[in-house]
Description:
This protein is about 20% helix and about 30% strand. By secondary structure, the protein is an alpha+beta fold.
Amino acid sequence: xxxxxxxxxxxxxxxxxxxxxxxxxxxxxxxxxxxxxxxxxxxxxxxxxxxxxxxxxxxxxxxxxxxxxxxxxxxxxxxxxxxxxxxxxxxxxxxxxxxxxxxxxxxxxxxxxxxxxxxxxxxxxxxxxxxxxxxxxxxxxxxxxxxxxxxxxxxxxxxxxxxxxxxxxxxxxxxxxxxxxxxxxxxxxxxxxxxxxxxxxxxxxxxxxxxxxxxxxxxxxxxxxxxxxxxxxxxxxxxxxxxxxxxxxxxxxxxxxxxxxxxxxxxxxxxxxxxxxxxxxxxxxxxxxxxxxxxxxxxxxxxxxxxxxxxxxxxxxxxxxxxxxxxxxxxxxxxxxxxxxxxxxxxxxxxxxxxxxxxxxxxxxxxxxxxxxxxxxxxxxxxxxxxxxxxxxxxxxxxxxxxxxxxxxxxxxxxxxxxxxxxxxxxxxxxxxxxxxxxxxxxxxxxxxxxxxxxxxxxxxxxxxxxxxxxxxxxxxxxxxxxxxxxxxxxxxxxxxxxxxxxxxxxxxxxxxxxxxxxxxxxxxxxxxxxxxxxxxxxxxxxxxxxxxxxxxxxxxxxxxxxxxxxxxxx
Length: 571
């Protein structure tokens, strides 16, 4: 195999070279190979990335080579120095299979590999693991998704962080141009389907394909690793952050591999660690104390070395199956499974003694179901020309506000945000797991959105987001088949996925829930017209109603972790 580039290797390293690896369709991928000295057959660490890993010399690869491990770094199809046009995410399963076949033929490869990388390179690992290649002994995805449709479309809405800013950043990088348009102007551009030409590019078939398929259909199956979890035979060291955009899939992937992995090693040896960080491994405005990090990079490196040296042994025998940080109480906890086995799902009801609009309203949260007293519903106006702005949360940080926990007073002063607050808690309340909301709503629009955000309120009145969710009326029955238009005045049940968390609401703190219809630009604005997604450049006002009477008991479902006394919350 000819080498496009060969460099003088430093001491302790036998080879640093670049190879243009051919795929089945003739496209060639730039592939850098770092091999230990002396020459021979070696296990390798593999990174497949769209971020131009072959453009620079990797000091990490040189260090691993000095430790006796080879490293292979490959630019994904249509990115970096590789050829072809990228079908981002969906190309990675088949291209990884071609890579495995090529690698098996190399005289310097001993048959054992482990994959590495975070974000897209982490997702590429999951796609590669679907192949079930016997040489893949382990994977180490960090902040990485398995199901790409679920990344772009959350509750039927479209995410700007990944779907717009990241996507066009990747296109600009490939076209070797600078994306100069300010993010504020990009967010105002409509219709969404024509964003490619509005930004000065030629029509981008990949972009328009994403927009044309908002529902979960066969178009996305090529990038759904959950469908093949039973083929994944390699154990994994899976890591993430509570405010990463992919945290739900991180935890779901861990649970699926532990339960349904394709080998005993995958089911027994897989580990998980979750820190209180965002996608870029930063904290928000809340101080989690000096011990909020777990040293996952050092543990990951040990996992890779051990799994390559002794593939049949547990690579991390001293580590718990799962370790996660509990915010609020700022402590580390351990579990053998996710969700936690002793979770007690408990409803927390919305009610009001008057209009609940803004922090000045009279919205209430209670563990007691609503009775006949109080107001039966709350109303607000959703104007997509003045949407509720994103403030913290699980996004990539491309909007005006960074992700993570952020103080919410600017949001809670808005009249188009309903605010419901509990009494001060009489004891600490551990909420660990998946948060869901069931709210009963009506709207004047044929299609619209509703949002739910869970917050922690400190004794001095500061409110910080914990997790949140959104649901588009068109996908109220699920992501596969769009529902019919909503009828004015008819009450609908919205089951909203509000994400995952591990949070202690401390004694004296209060729980708060915000309900509204937008969280922009984390999610696209619903124009309230009922037009086909991505084609509308018009906006309409929607009159929204949220019910919380005995017949329509809107509530959150909190995964509570009881103490040794088996207590039940009373407030």
